[in-house]
Amino acid sequence: MSKLVIGLTGGIGSGKTTVADIFATYGIDIIDADIVAREVVEPGTPALAQIAEHFGAEFILNDGNLDRTKLRHRVFANEDDKHWLNALLHPLIRNAMAQQCIAAKSPYCFLVAPLLIENGINKSVEKVLVIDVKPETQIARTVSRDNNTTEQVQKILNAQVSREERLSYADYVINNDDCSIEALKEQVELLHREFLKLVVG
Fold this sequence. Notes:
Layout: E1 4-9, H1 16-24, E2 29-32, H2 33-39, H3 46-55, H4 68-77, H5 79-103, E3 108-112, E4 127-132, H6 135-146, H7 150-159, H8 163-168, E5 172-175, H9 181-200
Parallel strand pairs: 1-3, 1-4, 2-3, 4-5
Helix pairs in contact: 4-5, 6-7
């Protein structure tokens, strides 16, 4: 088990995955909430069966997987459906993430969650690392990456905590605005050394 669990978060388009991937090159275990969220609704899981029963069989693709896009549109448009889905999935995701943190072998590990603050996951980690970018950068990156409209991205931003509030929870910050991959790697290396000191110290 890792001696230190660090929550890694940032708004959409901030570069969380890129940063986590760089830390992974140092042999650091990464527990990713998005990956866990997909695992708990894989074909054959009780959660997927409950979703099909609640929303209808049309939310399951021909290959047996969840139609995530269709479900996302549904819950964004209906607050009751969103609450029902969160009540089903959040405990499963939390439990799976906790198990993976216990199984982590690296000196410290990361729990990567876009909604670390919003869902209160920050309470179950020892430190919080925020990947910070300007809202304009988030919108530009996400529009080009996901083929979304500016309005769609703005809606996602509005559903997340503000940049200021997220930073108020941060023990450490990586600035990823107009940042080259080399500059990003330098910031990661400095923090990696810092985290190892905390673990050894």
